[in-house]
Amino acid sequence: MCQLLGMNANTPTDVMFSFTGFATRAEEHRDGFGIAFFEGAGVRLLVDAQSARTSPVAEMVRRFPIHSQNIVAHIRKATQGRVTLANTHPFVRELWGRYWVFAHNGDLKDFTPRLHGAFRPVGETDSERAFCWLMQELAKAHASVPTIIELTATLRELTSVPGAFGSFNFMLSNGQALWAHCSTQLHHLVRQHPFALASLHDEDVTVDFAQHATEHDRVAVIVTEPLTRDEAWVAFAPGELRVFADGALLAGA
Amino acid sequence: MCQLLGMNANTPTDVMFSFTGFATRAEEHRDGFGIAFFEGAGVRLLVDAQSARTSPVAEMVRRFPIHSQNIVAHIRKATQGRVTLANTHPFVRELWGRYWVFAHNGDLKDFTPRLHGAFRPVGETDSERAFCWLMQELAKAHASVPTIIELTATLRELTSVPGAFGSFNFMLSNGQALWAHCSTQLHHLVRQHPFALASLHDEDVTVDFAQHATEHDRVAVIVTEPLTRDEAWVAFAPGELRVFADGALLAGA
User: Cβ–Cβ of A121/B41 closer than 8 Å?
Assistant: First the structure.
């Protein structure tokens, strides 16, 4: 199974600590990785068909502090589609003058929706097909970028369609908010004042966020399996869609 | 003025030598750079709002041999739009299940076409607007990916429209071919057997391509100003559109 990592913050934040823990899991997920950083409306996508443990691109992510308010990362264990750049998540499309970034963990068996709109897969994965379908249906449902609340309601209706074909854990961001949908496994936490120490599960690395953040900083981290030992990760329920904006879970959305 | 660099090869080739010469010109063009590499149908886009001389992303391009058959690079001197990631070339869109990469050098004054289709600019540049318009019109002209010859004929008709609003030097690639249009300044050459020595104009670097290439390798390099002293660069005529496939100029297209 692949692994997902998302970050939504109220101020541009780097993801070096979380990515280090995340990349450690790449040993069994050696079929490429990708990470998308929003910088304003622009998006920076770093991808490699190599394992995140050995890739020079992943090395750059660990070493250079790229600051972003919305990040989506994915480590791939190929289930459908060859190991090529075109099949590597996250995928990016433009809709309503904004970029949309999507990464999927799961396996959608025989989900072959009619794609009659402006979004077509370039690669061969079930994941990109589901993303193109989501974009096509969003484009039908709204004439321009809706509010986060409205978009969440639309997504909640749409996700059940591919969800009926298998496991559909995904993350989606347009740079304004981050949506995370759980079929089988997903967790989140919010780091905010007062900050505490956090130790990575898989590596001997501890960070004191109080030294790196101001009391106004707030960041939500969403991940397949909890990254740290000493923080209170909240599990998603199967079928749950959570939306994060300004570093917090948007309640009631 | 910005600078453009394109490469089209018959076998995956790295661009380290040409990019080194190209990045040297970044001193006066410090408003960001970007480079897109096709790997099969997939595309890897490396961009930075920093100068290509100092950017860690450019450093990675100079050091890691990324092999590609189609490369489009751009060094930016901002004329329209702020210096942000969203305004940094090349731009990427998907059409007919293929990625399209576009970079522009020039200034289109008051080109504000009606964009009623599926392509909208995310940033604020005249360049991205022109690209969205080109994609919209291509989508109208063909139902799916046409042949290179057909696409060239359509592009030749379309380019005169934005071209009437100012200078429209651009490069476009879908990973199968590379189109280069000249308004004011563009040159190309084809490197093939028997290979010779080439020395960069702006740096004290010489490369012996015979040591790096087999006799079957062929690569076309297209650039705003010639990169080397000892090779026969062919200037484009104003208004000329050239198309390159398998490392050669496609004559009669």
Answer: no
Burial per residue of B32-63, b for 16 or more beta-carbon CB atoms within 10 angstroms, e otherwise = bbbbbbbbbbbbbbbbbbbbbbebebbebbee
Q: Tell me whether residues A86 and B40 touch, CB distance under 8 A.
A: yes
Cβ atoms within 10 Å of B19's Cβ, excluding its own: 22
The separation between the first and the last C-alpha atoms of chain B, rounded to the nearest angstrom, is: 29
Whether the pLDDT of residue B30 is over 80: the answer is no
Rounded CA-CA distance A152/A96 in Å is 16
- For the segment A51-69, what is each residue's pLDDT rounded down to a tens digit? 777 787 788 777 777 889 9
Q: For residue B55, what pLDDT band results from cuts at 50, 70 and 90? A: confident
**What ipTM, to 2 d.p.?**
0.90
What pLDDT score was predicted for residue A1? 61
Q: Tokens standing for A129?
A: 């097909």
Q: Are A130 and A104 a contacting pair, CB within 8 Å?
A: yes
B94: confidence class by pLDDT, cuts 50, 70, 90:
very high
The C-alpha atoms of residue B244 and residue A65 are separated, in whole angstroms, by 38
- Per the CB < 8 A criterion, the answer to whether A95 and A59 are in contact is no
Which residue from A101, A122, A125, A123 is spatially nearest to A112, judged by alpha carbons? A125
- Structural domains for chain B: 3-249 (3.60.20.10)
Average pLDDT over residues A32-40: 91
H/E run at residue B105: strand B98-105
User: What six digits make up the tokens of A124?
Assistant: 């061969």
Q: What is the pLDDT of residue A62?
A: 77
3-class DSSP assignment, residue A243: strand
Neighboring chain A residues of B97 at a CB cutoff of 8 Å: 120-122
State the residue for tokens 């540049």.
B125
Interface test with B, best of A16, A31, A85 (most B CBs within 10 A): A85
Mean pLDDT for chain B overall: 89
DSSP, res A41: T
How close, in Å, is residue A169 to chain B by CA atoms? 23
Helix (H) or strand (E) holding B140: helix B126-141
Tell me: pLDDT of B24 over 80.
no
Query: In terms of C-beta density within 10 A (0-12 exposed, 13-18 middle, 19 or more buried), how is residue A204 classed?
Result: exposed
The pairing of strands A68-75 and A33-39 is antiparallel
pTM over 0.90: yes
Q: Which residues of chain B are within 8 Å of residue A122 when distances are taken between CB atoms? A: 41-42, 94, 97-99
